[in-house]
Amino acid sequence: MLRSIKHSAGVAVALTAAALLVAAPAGAQAPETAGHALHTRTTAATASGNNLAYGGGNIVTNQKIYVVYWGNQWGTGSTVTNDPSGEAALQLSFFQHAYGSGDTWSNSQTQYCQGVAVGTTQCGSSGTHVGHPASNPVAGTWLDSSVKAPAKPGQSAIAAEAVKAAAHFGVSGDNVQIIVDAAHGVVPSGFKTQYCAWHDHTSTSTGADLPYTNMPYVSDAGAGCGAGFVATGSSGVNSATEGVTIVGGHEYAETLTDPAPSSGWVDSTGAETGDKCAWVSSGQGASSIASLNGANFAVQSLWSNNFSGGAGGCVTSYTSATNQN
Hints:
single chain, 22% strand
């Protein structure tokens, strides 16, 4: 996730590749977050060069995205009415376009798999691979206006809302990603000063695994979490809300390959596929405007183990193992 990461076991993890973190005092520790976080831009580290390796856990083979707009700060009925930057619609459109042959951005993650030996770095045709949806992967949205979200929620409150949303949708398991969207003005603990977003997993009331993402109102952090990071040109992309899809895409890709951090695909430092390529501004793997099924979005690159003949690298477009850039 975008920097400032902690695993669910509570061990702080230093993100490699410019993770999406915000400015934090030197030596500052991660806030009460579990899993992997995307650090803000000013605290992003330099990515290490080693490839991701399989840790023995699950990956996502049939992704389904569920979004919960947490709290009556989004609106008091069943429809989002308080969204000054238009983040809800942008986020939804982004994920609704991430499917099929028209998405050559996220399909780079299909090279990773489960059911192979721990330490594997190249799956080839072995194992069961990360899935790539043939159609819109968004399976549900819900405005939970029955409560007011805390002004500064911590990890436990966010996890509890994810479990509540899973019960609302009637879902669980590693193919599910619950995205907990905080409204404008709600500042999850550590947001803007240490991270932009993070993902982790928890358990439902039945004990089933449940991957989820803490997605703050990213544009509230401005340039620290992606605003104006990519030149938009004539793409039609709004530079003020670029971070919504840069950060959201980062967490989505990491959930695909490591839904229960860090049992899936990470490098030797604990960095995930998004961490290794976060906040790259020039050269190979620079963040850019990508066309997903005819709609333009700002995205960061993702790590590809089979890039450059297996040397690995950050790529924003992936047609095949031998055609990526």
